[in-house]
Amino acid sequence: NFSGSASEQRCPYDERPVSPGGDSMTSSLECDLMIESLQKELGIVRLELEAIVLQQIL
Predict the structure, then answer these.
(1) Are 7 and 32 in contact (CB under 8 A)?
(2) Mean pLDDT across the stretch 31-44?
(3) Is pLDDT above 50 for 53?
(4) Domain range for residue 19?
């Protein structure tokens, strides 16, 4: 389960300068969304890799 460790890591987006009058909540929300979409992509890639490995074995 990646959700716990991923959210604890520092997100590179946090280092981005916040625009004047902007608030930092936006960048941290964007960061959470990026983490979510990356986790989905990782899950898909992992399933594809497992399928390839199973084909090699059979």
Answers:
(1) yes
(2) 94
(3) yes
(4) 3-57
